Every structure is written in C-alpha cells, then in structure tokens.
UniProtKB/TrEMBL annotation:
Coiled coil: none annotated. This is Molybdenum cofactor biosynthesis protein B. Belongs to the MoaB/Mog family. May be involved in the biosynthesis of molybdopterin. It comes from Parasphingorhabdus litoris. Residues 28-172 form the MoaB/Mog domain. Gene3D superfamilies: MoaB/Mog-like domain (3.40.980.10). Pathway: Cofactor biosynthesis; molybdopterin biosynthesis. Pfam families: MoCF_biosynth. The gene is moaB. Keywords: Molybdenum cofactor biosynthesis. It comes from the Bacteria.
C-alpha cells in the first residue's frame, strides 16, 4: 500500500451503525494537577461536556494533586465500584518529576492497551508536530474497567476524546468498539 493510499484510508471515518442501539456507559473523570482546582479545571470541563453530549453518564468527577498513592487509591476505589465502566484521567502524563499518572496506572493495571497511546500521539502529531513525543498518554484495563490517561491540555483532551474515545465508547461503532467488550473483560 502506498503512503497516499494509507493516508486516504486513515482519513475515512469509521461508521456508526445507526441500526444498533446506543448504550450509555458510566464514566468517572479524574483530573491530576498541582495547579488547578475543580473551579478552573478547563480540560476536565471539556471532557465532562463531551461525555454528557454523547449521552454517557458522568458518575464521578474529582481532582487530585500529583501524588501517586492518592491517585492509586482513587483509581482502585472507582475500579472496584461495579457501576464504573470507564475512568478517564487528564493530567500528569508529561515528563517532569511530578508527572506520575502513567506510573499509577502501571500499579493498578491488568493489561496495557498500547494502541491507545500510539494513536493518540499520531493524532496529536498532526497538530503539534514532534512535541507529541513528550506525551505519555496511555490506557489500561484493570479488573474489568477501562482506564484512559490523557494529557492535561485542552487540545490534548479534545484530541483524545474527539479522535478516539468518542467512537470507541460508542456501542454502535463498527467494526468494533470498547463498549461491546466490557462484559468480556473479566473472562478467564
């Protein structure tokens, strides 16, 4: 396949099968930041608005400082809550010494979803060029719950939601989506 053919394929939007029923899921949203509060958490607001606009339920929203034990504790609490299907974090995915969200996910994970970070950086590259290599956006499955870690910038959460999560968290998305796998995540 030539580069031009691959580009055309990448530009083609994946279909939403309108004949299928949309299944709303429960999402918990965690902002990780030393500098923001819930009052000025613009990236969290963007995600909360997109979650609601899509028809999902924002079941929890919280903000925690860049403190790995506290992040792990919050993640574990939500992971163990049967009503939480997905956790989305924003912030703490950079390279500084205080950025420890991916390390917190490493503690709670059962499986990595490596394609999430790869796709995020590919989408981000189109907007910020090589600066995307500084992002450690990642995703894992933990005890039957998806956990997605996005950077804290407004542009990054838009890229992550609009470019990946909007469709992958839509039960009508073809050829496959994360939602249809939720009942099978705990299979042995």
């Amino acid at each position: 396949m030539s580069y031009t053919e691959a580009e055309k394929l990448a530009e083609k939007p994946m279909p939403i099968d309108e004949s299928r029923t949309f299944k709303a899921i429960n999402i918990a949203l965690l902002t990780v930041s030393d500098t923001r509060s819930l009052k000025d958490d613009s990236s969290g607001d963007i995600l909360a608005n997109r979650i609601a606009a899509k028809g999902h339920t924002l079941i929890h929203r919280s903000l925690i400082r860049d403190d790995q034990p506290k992040i792990i504790k919050q993640l574990n609490q939500w992971i163990d809550e049967e009503t939480v299907d997905v956790i989305i974090t924003t912030g703490g995915t950079g390279l500084t010494g205080r950025d420890i969200t991916p390390e917190a996910l490493d503690v709670v994970k059962d499986k990595d979803i490596p394609g999430f970070g790869e796709l995020f950086r590919w989408l981000s590259y189109e907007k910020i060029g090589t600066s995307t290599v500084q992002s450690r956006a990642c995703a894992v499955v933990s005890r039957g719950t998806y956990v997605f870690a996005l950077p804290g910038s407004n542009g990054a959460v838009k890229d992550g939601w609009d470019g990946i999560l909007d469709t992958q968290l839509d039960s009508r998305h073809r050829p496959c989506n994360f939602v249809e796998l939720i009942p099978r995540l705990l299979e042995k």
